[in-house]
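Weekly puzzle thread! Below is a chain. First person to post its structure in token form gets bragging rights.
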Amino acid sequence: MVASHRRTVSRSEQPDPHTRGRVRAHTAAVLLIALVLVAALVAACSAEATVGASGSVSPDSSSVAGETAADAFSGDVGARAATGADWAHTLQVVANLRAEPPAKPVVVLLGGSAARESTISDSSWRAQIETKGGPATAAYNLGSRNRTLAQNVALVQALPKVPTIVLIGVNLGSFTSAQKTATISLPKPAATLPPYKQHAYSRSRILTKANKRMLAAAWLADRYPVFRRNFRSSSGVLEKLIKVCRARGMKPVLFELPRNTAVIGSKLNTPTKKYRDKCRALARKYGVPYVSLVAAARLPNSSFYDLWHLVEPGRKVWQNLLSAKTAALLKRYGYDGGGS
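Winning reply:
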């Protein structure tokens, strides 16, 4: 008979019941904060889009579709299919470009709602690119909420094969989607773009610093596991997007989207470093630029609605830097009329 050996655990090695209680209470508090904040954000961001019986969003809706708490959690969570006036606007722009490819170089910014909120308007962006020494362009911010990298692949495949710089907006939320492939259906070309309200956020109403700090804690509790689970597959879709751009003769640029470092501090350093390291590795592998304006912008907390979405003061600073970088990229690729 073989004697069983059972290790006796002393009282000093056993978990302190008070410690266990504090850990459980802390975890419950974080989750409760997340739930309460989600409810508050849903209520605070309630601009509605016009939705038809089929579930499609009316392209002539003049407002940006209702933002969700998920937007505030990750910037571009990509947990659901993109819908709303901003997605309809994106599809209409692509349809028009495809139907009548412009003679000017095309510049498109892809991403979710954090990308959408990062410029003032397409017309002011184009004018500013010229002010910074670039040529006349057909520049469009094609950001829309809940966008996935897979949908960006589909959009690039639909763009005409003309000289194009594709700014691929990336942030934490870009890597939380499990979507690997996507298809899109373009509307008929329109003589003019339908009315479009680009911005859902304004400095007239931003979250308190305390709520923003709660969002950072809630992201770690709620979204970080999703980020870890989907990071590898999302990275694969990002690499595919770069390949598709290059195959179509376009110039992809990995472009980091705004982040409220004033509030986030070091809280999200680990996942942020992970996606930035991946972007740098892909940039080296394919010889494409990786651009981050986050440090140069030095944006204060007051420039953000939450942790990701810019409001008026921040947009002005960010677009100014983006315009200068865009002009430099156009020159680098010979799209300014000079040599390549």
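Puzzle host: Confirmed. Bonus trivia for everyone else. The first helix runs from residue 17 to 44.
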